Description:
Helix content is 41%, strand content 15%. The chain has helices spanning 17-31, 80-87, 106-115, 124-129, 135-154, 168-178, 190-194, 200-212, 221-231, 276-287, 304-313, 328-336, 353-359, 387-399, 401-415, 420-435; strands spanning 2-6, 35-39, 46-50, 62-64, 70-72, 159-163, 181-186, 215-218, 238-240, 263-267, 294-298, 320-324, 340-343, 363-367, 380-382. The radius of gyration is 22 Å and the shape is globular.
Amino acid sequence: xxxxxxxxxxxxxxxxxxxxxxxxxxxxxxxxxxxxxxxxxxxxxxxxxxxxxxxxxxxxxxxxxxxxxxxxxxxxxxxxxxxxxxxxxxxxxxxxxxxxxxxxxxxxxxxxxxxxxxxxxxxxxxxxxxxxxxxxxxxxxxxxxxxxxxxxxxxxxxxxxxxxxxxxxxxxxxxxxxxxxxxxxxxxxxxxxxxxxxxxxxxxxxxxxxxxxxxxxxxxxxxxxxxxxxxxxxxxxxxxxxxxxxxxxxxxxxxxxxxxxxxxxxxxxxxxxxxxxxxxxxxxxxxxxxxxxxxxxxxxxxxxxxxxxxxxxxxxxxxxxxxxxxxxxxxxxxxxxxxxxxxxxxxxxxxxxxxxxxxxxxxxxxxxxxxxxxxxxxxxxxxxxxxxxxxxxxxxxxxxxxxxxxxxxxxxxxxxxxxxxxxxxxxxxxxxxxxxx
Length: 437
């Protein structure tokens, strides 16, 4: 079986959990004999024909010639940097952009809706015509969607798999021109990203994608319930497939301390969805009793300036530190130098970072409002808004090193069983059911 897959992220094109998840999914599918034609929002007209596991880390480049034939590029690359530069990969894609600017671009999508005489059960052309937001991100979405119909006509594949709203228009147009069935994978809804109502235009794209899809994959029961309650999607086509993690399990002796004091880590996007303000408030409470504890906020986002100013107002000084955005190597270093990991998300469809933290033996506290809470037992679970309880649980872990170590070790052993192989078995079941096999 061969899958035409659309995603906005794939290493090294990555800004969050979407890229990490897609990497694990594609690698797992290849192990099981499923071939993938991967299309990314790169600069050049290229796609990635992945046929064996090693292809995942060596992205072979193909392009469509003017004669509309598939050929390998004749360019010889000295290293991966040259390869990524050639195809125009950005280090931080806008998968989680907050739409704040208003910009209508009716003409962007008018041509393809007219050309293909697309007939939808809902006014999809109206959805596209009214998309407004950052000119850069939606220009890319437009180009990506146009590219999709080209690949859909030329490539040979059995099913279409689209990840999150940025690629749903591509998935729908590919389905339209090819007649192949579409699977939409929902990693996060606009309700999750916005921490509330969010942007109506993105809601319309998410609704359109999941309505037109033949099957929908949700990353947790939490997400599936939101899709059903907020979008009224047919329950019969929703499938829950929990995420997993990609990294190797780390032994506790690999710890590399930066500070001798206990380190409490928040690692994620500094946005409303992730609840960084609740983490800060808990730190304020704890530091009034334990002034030698170090709190580290690793990541970047639109709330970063607000949190920095608030930590200064609270006079937390060098006890509350900011790292900015971290690459994979620096993320590993951060895990190895920390003792406690906190996920304080307001709404988290899944949450891969806690699995990564636990694989490093960190005692972990997670929000009950997260999908990952469905699959792990050896972590402390609290409501995101309960700052007092969060502070109490962190203090307990600080005061009782034996308990902290035991929780970390149990968590590390637990996540050994949460593998992408198992998740991909479930995805393949969805493929076969959708294809009628």
